[in-house]
Hints:
alpha+beta; about 50% helix; elongated; 10 helices; 5-stranded mixed β-sheet
Amino acid sequence: MFVLTRQTLWNPAVLETRGxxxxxxxxxxxxxxxxxxxxxxxxxxxxVQPLRYGVALAPFAVAMLVWPHxxxxxxxxxxxxxxxxxxxxxxxxxxxxxxxxxxxxxDEAARRLDRLAFRARALLRGIAxxxxxxxxxxxxxxxxSDLVRIAPLTLVSVQxxxxxxxxxxxxxRDRAALFRGxxxxxLTERDLHxxxxxxxxxxxxVRIGARAVSGHARMAAWIDRKGGPTLAGAGAGR
Length: 238
């Protein structure tokens, strides 16, 4: 999982948008500068289609080096290369519709999406309270790659329509809350990926209105910013 925000990218210009939700995969290439682990970085690089093509066609290059006298015939066999790319991209790295539906049953898929929505709304309320956002809609957008047989790639962002469509800047505390509260052993990235494969839908968004955030939550966030005890902690000490 990688959180998309200006603070985590070398090229934050890719986050600019005129409409919501903002899609990333297959359209732009985010270049991480912080907040990403080596395995997730490698997975993000693997998402670059030309690089995957290069890996799939590597055996042809090796064959031309091993058998130089066959280099010209191999280079002039584009049909074979196209067939290899088709097998890798459409059969190895993606699933047929019947196999997508077999990933998870319909009832379990609905339960997983309900659990995701419940967690996302709680996270959005916390972010809205901490950032003092009082108007417009906030959306937690979770985008996953459709590639299979490798670790799922999950991009997470918080998007809003006020004062214009944009991706929110998220500080360390906001990002930590997302990492802590979105996925765990009960709902993993693979669990969500199975649902997305079944429904052939890889962009999820959960929305709340900023005005729906309670005064209690805003007060707790204000006290937390000031470094004082939380309301719960103050009540426990009485």
